[in-house]
Design brief:
This protein is an alpha/beta fold. The chain folds into three domains: 167 residues; 101 residues, Translation factors (Elongation Factor Tu (Ef-tu), domain 3, Beta Barrel), CATH 2.40.30.10; 175 residues, 3-Layer(aba) Sandwich (Rossmann fold). It is built from 17 helices and 13 strands. Strand 7, helix 12 and strand 8 form a beta-alpha-beta unit. The two termini are 19 Å apart. The structure holds flavin-adenine dinucleotide (FAD). Flavin-adenine dinucleotide (FAD) binds next to helix 7, strand 4, strand 5 and helix 11.
Length: 457
Amino acid sequence: MAIFFGLNIIFAWNRVQYSGDFNQYGYLTIANGGLALLFGSRNNLLSLVTRVPSTTLLMFHRWVGRAAVFYASLHLYGESRDWIKEGEVSTVFANMRIQVGLMAWLSLALIFVTSLSIMRRQQFEVFYYAHALFIAFIIGALIHADHAPEFLLPGLCLWALDRVIRFSRNFRRIQILSVTPYATDVMKIKIRGFKTSYPGQIAWIQISEVSFLNWHPFTVASAPGDDEAMFLIRGLGGYTRRVQDLAKKNNFEQASIAEIPFPWKIRVDGPYGVSHTQWEAYPVIVLVAGGVGITPGLSIASHILRHATGTGENIEGRPPWHVHLLWVIKDEQHVNWCQEELQNLFAMSASPTVQATFDLTIAITGSARLEARAANDDEFIALEGQTSHDYNGPGELIRGRPNIVQWFRALRSKRDGLDGAVNVCGPRSLISMVRTAAADLSGRGGIFHLEEEVFEL
Ligand SMILES: Cc1cc2nc3c(=O)[nH]c(=O)nc-3n(C[C@H](O)[C@H](O)[C@H](O)COP(=O)(O)OP(=O)(O)OC[C@H]3O[C@@H](n4cnc5c(N)ncnc54)[C@H](O)[C@@H]3O)c2cc1C
């Protein structure tokens, strides 16, 4: 970021005297516009070569995009100031080159406005499809500015390549193996015909029976290389609720539907995303998840336990891996979402050929029973972390909000002297508690390296 800001300041520095001096800002617009294209594509060469996570690339994409709008506006202001003063506006704007320049600026301005976080959160489709206006920006810039191809064509070629790869994935044969709707507005889909390369990758999913135009991102909960990919989809807004309704309407119950002809078609674009953490390089893997945020944790845990069988590399004489998963959910029923997968993880870790331990704590923060017992907030807090003895599912179950710092402290004393890699995925409040705990408990006894994930762009 420092290099980005530094370069922009150096190149933008200009003792402006004449309107022609504002041309410099036009060039800075196309330079940043070209970079925005490079950072924005899903199949990203940069991310592939440098293993920079897509969240970081998205952050750069936003900043170079903002810089492009800023310089384009400065360029327009500087150039048009004198035309307005001298009453030449109508003559100048009759010029085709100026008209397309104006179109390029307008396209950028619209992309900027529709990308504001309020629009992105509330009108995702408007934000997403308004980005197509960048084609108008490119055409306008290519006609309006000299040397525009040098700045814009490299990014444009990589963007076109990305679109070709994405289009070709439409023809991939995806078989739906099972669809399991849960009472709590969460649905599990298992498919075949799609594999990931790294733990915690995402895929964009399209279900044409719900919408032909909408593609939504979901984390693949299975391990890299698995023949079956699993997704947990929570009904949040318009699209995901329609997916839940479709699943309920078809009444799949909990049955496998491999044998019956499946009434929907699913398209999958991906896998995308690289993590900057090489999970198997750490002796301790700490996974903290809130609700459906369990998906990256499940993928990482399965990957480590698979790796600990020694099939990928020779692990003889290597100390074991320790996987600790804390899953915070509102209701005990939510355990059902991935009871089978969690039990499989326990079964794997119990195998004598697997050099790994798996430890699971499930914290129920708001079950009806708990709320009935805790009439007010003080009592609720007093119930923090009580172990439940009437639970016979996988792992240990506690009722009440977990004390994250205490949980990390217990983990630190159990795994003293070992470094840990931490993945946290869930609400921002949970992420911030984990960040604080990981920082506080990093020290001579071992360092916690943190990777944070939120389910939003
Ligand atoms: C990297 C990533 C991984 C995710 N993994 C999972 C997962 O494993 N399980 C799960 O249940 N959810 C996951 N999500 C969230 C899921 O994509 C959204 O809940 C879903 O797209 C919401 O769409 P909606 O129309 O139902 O809700 P809306 O109410 O329209 O939107 C709710 C939120 O989702 C965002 N959103 C809406 N449409 C899209 C879209 N097409 N692409 C991206 N964001 C969108 C909106 O900006 C808003 O912030 C993930 C999101 C991201 C970014």
